[in-house]
Model the fold of this input.
Amino acid sequence: MKVDMFDFNLPEALIAQTPLEDRSSSRLMVLNKQTGEVRHETFSNLIDYLNPGDCLVLNDTKVLPARLFGIKTDTGAKVEVLLLKQINEDRWETLVKPAKRVKKGTEISFGDGRLKAVCTGTEDHGGRQFEFQYEGIFYEILDSLGKMPLPPYIKEQLEDQDRYQTVYARERGSAAAPTAGLHFTNEILESLKVKGVHVAFITLHVGLGTFRPVSVDSVEDHDMHVEFYRMSEETAALLNQVKKDGGRIISVGTTSTRTLETIARANGGAFLAGNGWTDIFIYPGYEFQAIDGLVTNFHLPMSTLIMLVSALAGREYILHAYETAVQEKYRFFSFGDAMLII
Done:
């Protein structure tokens, strides 16, 4: 299967650079995965498409303000460090710009010395490992000094850092937001519960690999990035009961989808509490075992994410829906509009 089968024309003007003032005022395209029919709604009308007994599954990961700007203590040269993965308490895997200036033993100072980092090693992908030194609580210092690691296609500054967090974010660890969840407000979540729709939470810490372009010609040759996930006993029990009772499981975002499918595949379609690492790659031909529907944003051409939604709704239906979205001037990517595939 060729990667360019998932290409489409996207005018740059449709890439949303800033979030809407009201989260739930985004547009919502509803795609019927059986017929390809498209409807145009507002996100606040999502409740009309969910039934009592259905379950909405949200990723409660919290984005770290992982972009740090510092100086090399020996030369005063400016360096940007992006936290990727915590190896142990004070050691992190990172990306550095400019990387060639940072060798093993290099010390970098952030915030006039409130936080310091010493390079302890290099990674195969050109990254660096750092041991951080500080007094106090690391995450409080990070909240003070760090900036949100916005995707590379967003050029505008984000005035309110919380707009790149979901309203239910609570588990620190992501290098990017699970952006399908950005449309939800506490009021929408409460109205869903009142209707009898279950709301469950899982955790998958989103890595920067989610933005990594597919660099091979054939889909099957792509190596998927690895991300950490966790499911609680409470969520596993609820999802198993929903399935037993004939309700639908609707995942919010591709991250929730990958977590649910990873767990269900390992347990014969059932859900089991636990944590681990997933590199699941979902593309057309994949048989879903966990989800019945998906709330998602509009994705990049030829990305693993558009391949995932094509696996759920069919490539032709997805490309037709995206062509319609372009014609109707939907907003694309992280701060853009939403799609419900059901």
In short: Helices lie at 138-145, 186-195, 233-244, 254-266, 304-313, 315-327. The chain has two domains: 3-63+160-341, 67-145.
